[in-house]
Amino acid sequence: MRVRLVCIGLCIITLSACAAPTSRDSAATVDAVYARITEQAQSGEPLDPVLATSEAGEVAEAEESSDEATPEPENTPTPTPTPPDFRTSPLSLPRCTVDLTIDAQRSDWALEAAASLNISLEANTFGPSNWDGTQDSSGIVQLCWTDDDLFLFATVTDDRHVQTQSGLTAWQGDEIELVFDSNLRGDFFDEVWDDDDTQIGLSPGDFISRDPSGVRYQPQGQENLPVDIVAIREFGEGGSYDLEAQVPWSVFSTNPQSGESYGLCIAISDNDQPGEALQQSMVSHCQGLIITDPTTWITITLTG
Fold first, then answer.
1. Where are the alpha helices (DSSP H) in the chain?
2. What is the pTM of this model?
3. Statement to judge: residues 178 and 249 lie in one domain
4. pLDDT tens track for 24-48
C-alpha cells in the first residue's frame, strides 16, 4: 500500500513540476495540494488517482493564471518638458516713436534713443586668434520696430574695412549679421536651426563700387532682399562705418505682436585681409553665440 501511495505521489509531483510556481498565489495553490496529498497518505487510505490528477491540474492552472496576470512591462514615453517663455532675462524691444529716415544719420535716432533697444557688440564669438580687441572690431546697435518693419542703426568700429564680396558670399567680408527665431517656444530645446529660424546679412559694401545690400542665408538663400539700407564712413585711417536698415518682418516670415517673445542675435563679421574673401572673426552681444544653434540666442520681447 505504501509503495502505491509513494508512486502516485511521485506522479503528482512530476505533473506539477512541469509548471513550477513563479508567483505567490500559484505557490500557495501547490502547497495546499501537497498538504492534501500528505494528509491522505498519512491516514492510510488509498489515494484516489482521479483526485490526484485533478489536484495536479490545479497547479498547472494556477501557474497559467499567474502568467496571464503578469503582463509584460511597457515602455513609458519620456514626457516632453514644457518650454519656458524665454531662455535668459528677455530684452525689451520698444516700438518706434519717430518716423525714421534711412540715411545712416544719427539725428533721428538721437530722438529715438529713449524708445529703442541699445546693445553693445563686444564679445568675440568666432576667430579669437584673429581678434585684437574692441578697436579691431566692435559696435553699438539701436533697434526699434513697427507693425511692418524692424529698424536698425549700427555704429561699427573697425581698424580696416575689407569687403570684396556681394550676395550669398558677403559673409566673407565686413558686414552685420542678424539671426531671428520666429517660433521661440515651438522648438525651444532644438540645438539645430530649422525653417522658422532666419539669418540675414547687411553688407555696407566697399564704399567704392559695391553698394550696401541685404541677403538672406537661412532658411532659403536669397540675394537682393527688399531691405532699405544705407551705409556711410569717413575715409581716412581705419575702417569704421555707420549702417542703417529697415527690414520688413516678411523677411523673417513673421507677423509681430506686442508682448510676444522671439530669439535674436546680432553680430559683426570682420575681415582685415585686403583683396581676400575671408571671415576672420565675429563679435556679438550674445555670449557663446553659435549661429546655427538657436539655444545660444537671446530672447527679446516686443513692447509698445
1. 2-17, 24-43, 49-69, 107-112
2. 0.73
3. yes
4. 444 555 455 455 555 655 555 555 5
